[in-house]
Hints:
Elements: E1 10-16, H1 20-30, E2 34-41, E3 46-53, E4 56-63, H2 69-77, E5 80-88, H3 91-100, E6 118-121, E7 130-135, H4 140-144
Parallel strand pairs: 1-4, 5-7
Antiparallel strand pairs: 1-5, 2-3, 3-4, 6-7
Amino acid sequence: MSDDPVHGRIHHVASVVRDIDAAIDFHVRVLGLTLEQAVDVPSQEVRIAFLTAGDSKIELVSPLNETSGVARFLAAKGEGFHHLCLEVVDLGAELRRLKAGGIQLINAEPVPGVEGPVAFLHPKSCNGVLIELIEGPGGPAWAHLGYGDPGQLRLS
């Protein structure tokens, strides 16, 4: 792996919302986006929806209970921007590079995500922005986490 910074596309931009059904309706009916999927992610205590926006996506995130991290975020900061997700080729290698460069990681290793292996970088190291990295389809972490075929995604 080179020492170059992340050069992947913006995979998605995520917003926290109180009412995910109303937010989906707005994005579909008013903005004309296409709903790709909406699923509960019990391990994160959230319901998420992905909407297609050209080559990228918008993720809507809503808490499933009042005690989750997203519920606390919503109570403290209200609805709005939550995180930026960038696609990388080799997530494990990228995490090692970032850690060696002094970046504070929330996940030191790739973890299962709805659309592939993911890891988060702490906002303290990223100018106050929560950054999610996602490995592109078929990368090394896909097989390691048991995804198999990149077309076959599993929930985290």
